[in-house]
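Appendix B, record 7
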Amino acid sequence: MANKFSICDDCQATNSKTLVPKLKKLDPEAEIDIACQSYCGPGRKKVFVFVNERAVSAMDEDQLLQKVEKRMK
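Structure tokens (predicted):
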């Protein structure tokens, strides 16, 4: 089963232009959904991504990618 990443392009802390290529590098086969994730409160202060329907957040993209790797199938 492929991984699924869901990110928001409206949240202030998340930069989808830099995050999407990094996620594709982690898993080129993964499905990436870019839309509102209704995670606005934490999304103002932390970078986040939903990995297989579970939220993962961190203070910066490098920390986030380390956490994402652990959460992937």
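Remarks on this record: DSSP finds three helices and four strands in the chain. Helices lie at 16-26, 40-43, 61-71.
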